[in-house]
């Protein structure tokens, strides 16, 4: 995410300082790893309730215990006359314990029906938890499907977000439809599921809208079916994705495609009324992709692009394969501002999306990397000096640690803070100064390759950096990531932190 925060977006100085938050965690369980299903004549009496959360210390109720989600099928029908959505979400999962009942994360909306493996199940709402009791226990190791029918009003108020979060609902109404924005805990207001990045899954989207409107979603197109004045658009996201990165959008859009590097397809989605002006702006996507793959290695997905939505919101979000921005950003700020923002969201596709944080405290792995490449792109394009930005971050280092905690120990009530963004980028800069540019690039590429499609933790990053650099970096990186004071910057003995005030 890139959020517009006071003091962080400096306009008119030639310096575009941008905050972007990307958060993803993924736990991928290969199908082949599933233990054999217990025979139906087993021990149903041993079934117990699944835990309401996956165990993230910052967000204890996020995700769910007792099962892993393998696939989501999201079917939505948009009715522009009512501006409502009729939805059916089918969650395919594998039980990791025998379940007498289990939870799905779901906030708001009106549930109209629920089945487990086709049988009507009982359910109740408990805050953000949808507590499901199937007609029969689900046995450990077995695969099961939960289908939830519901009605949604994209303009409704939700209570899914932690404090100080730029996003307060997973739904975002636009001039002629809606988009979605789930980071970090608001996918649950769009669809029921296991709303934590460590439970990644593949997705199928089937979105129906009246003729004249276009529906888009993450991944690649998989068919379009016209029927009775409506069209159903299908998309597949086969590479595992965190719930918070889901994008489903309906509106009067023009989809602009072009060949990209590594056999990818560039797909930008713009309001039809703005296609003539935004199309040339978004031509930067190709050069940014080519540049970013030189930093991080091959692009991890089949398609990438920007969705410019006709709504006023002051953030950009790295939805997997389809970054969300406000169309108004492009006219409201100079290219020296929005171009680095786009580089930030693109960098998240490697750092945050493909490799998601194992726990939310690891969010610096998203935002630190994205801010690092955002600043690198700004420097490359002559918008702002990278080293100057790092120097400024260094000066602020102790203040941020005092205010928000160490870089890798954020709190839930201010997850996307300056210390995670530019403070995280500063950690990476310190690492580069310590090991040299060539080894730093090797670390960056190895990280993106080793944990592609899954999750990574801070501990794993420290171990990988040490391995690739052929030196023990545990003490060095632990001080930078968990220290209450900013360590000395290698190569810059003159750099000093401002007094904490
Ligand atoms: Zn970000």
TrEMBL record:
The lineage of its organism: Bacteria, Bacillati, Actinomycetota, Actinomycetes, Micromonosporales. One of its GO terms (molecular function) is alanyl aminopeptidase activity. It catalyses: Release of an N-terminal amino acid, Xaa-|-Yaa- from a peptide, amide or arylamide. Xaa is preferably Ala, but may be most amino acids including Pro (slow action). When a terminal hydrophobic residue is followed by a prolyl residue, the two may be released as an intact Xaa-Pro dipeptide. The keyword Cytoplasm does not apply. GO terms for biological process: proteolysis. Its EC number is 3.4.11.2. Transmembrane segments: none annotated. Residues 1-33 form the signal peptide. Residues 32-41 have a biased composition (Low complexity). Its cofactor is Zn(2+). Residues 32-62 are annotated as: Disordered. Belongs to the peptidase M1 family. This is Aminopeptidase N. It comes from Actinocatenispora comari. Residues 70-243 form the Aminopeptidase N-like N-terminal domain. Pfam families: Peptidase_M1, Peptidase_M1_N. It is an enzyme of class 3 (hydrolase). Keywords: Hydrolase, Metal-binding, Metalloprotease, Protease, Signal, Zinc. Residues 299-480 form the Peptidase M1 membrane alanine aminopeptidase domain.
């Amino acid at each position: 995410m890139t959020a517009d925060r006071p003091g962080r977006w400096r306009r008119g100085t030639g310096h575009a300082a941008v905050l972007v938050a990307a958060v993803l965690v993924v736990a991928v369980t290969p199908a082949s790893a599933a233990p054999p299903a217990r025979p139906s004549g087993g021990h149903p009496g041993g079934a117990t309730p699944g835990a309401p959360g996956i165990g993230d210390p910052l967000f204890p109720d996020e995700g769910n215990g007792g099962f892993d989600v393998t696939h989501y099928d999201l079917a939505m029908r948009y009715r522009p006359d009512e501006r409502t959505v009729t939805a059916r979400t089918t969650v395919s999962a594998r039980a990791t314990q025998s379940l007498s009942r289990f939870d799905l994360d779901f906030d708001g909306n009106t549930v109209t029906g629920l089945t487990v493996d086709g049988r009507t199940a009982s359910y109740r709402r408990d805050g953000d938890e949808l507590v499901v009791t199937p007609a029969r226990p689900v046995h450990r190791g077995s695969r099961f499907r939960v289908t939830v029918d519901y009605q949604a009003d994209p303009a409704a108020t939700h209570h899914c977000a932690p404090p100080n979060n730029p996003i307060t609902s997973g739904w975002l109404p636009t001039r002629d439809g809606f988009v979605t924005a789930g980071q970090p805990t608001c996918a649950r207001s769009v669809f029921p599921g296991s709303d934590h990045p460590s439970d990644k899954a593949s997705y199928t989207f089937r979105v129906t809208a009246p003729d004249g409107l276009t529906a888009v979603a993450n991944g690649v197109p998989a068919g379009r079916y016209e029927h009775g004045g409506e069209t159903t658009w299908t998309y597949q996201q086969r590479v595992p994705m965190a719930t918070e990165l889901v994008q489903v959008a309906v509106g009067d859009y023009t989809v602009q495609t072009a060949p990209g590097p590594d056999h990818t397809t560039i797909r930008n989605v713009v309001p039809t009324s703005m296609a003539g002006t935004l199309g040339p702006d978004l031509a930067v996507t190709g050069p940014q992709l080519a540049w970013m793959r030189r930093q991080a290695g091959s692009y991890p997905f089949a398609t990438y692009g920007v969705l410019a939505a006709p709504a006023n919101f002051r953030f950009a979000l790295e939805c997997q394969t389809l970054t969300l921005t406000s169309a108004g950003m492009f006219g409201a700020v100079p290219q020296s501002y929005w171009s680095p923002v786009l580089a930030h969201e693109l960098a998240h596709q490697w750092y945050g999306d493909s490799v998601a944080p194992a726990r939310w405290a690891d969010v610096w792995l998203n935002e630190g990397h994205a801010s690092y490449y955002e600043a690198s792109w700004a420097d490359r394009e002559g918008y702002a000096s990278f080293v100057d930005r790092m120097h400024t971050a260094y000066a602020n280092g102790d203040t941020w640690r005092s205010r928000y905690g160490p870089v890798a120990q954020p709190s839930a009530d201010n997850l996307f803070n300056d210390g995670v963004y530019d403070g995280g980028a500063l950690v990476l800069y310190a690492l580069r100064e310590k090991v040299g540019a060539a080894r730093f690039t090797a670390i960056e590429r190895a990280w993106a390759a080793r944990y592609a499609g899954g999750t990574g933790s801070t501990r794993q990053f420290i171990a990988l950096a040490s391995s690739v650099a052929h030196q023990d970096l545990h003490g060095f990186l632990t001080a930078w990531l968990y220290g209450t004071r900013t360590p000395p910057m290698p190569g810059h003995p003159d750099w000093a932190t401002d007094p904490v005030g």
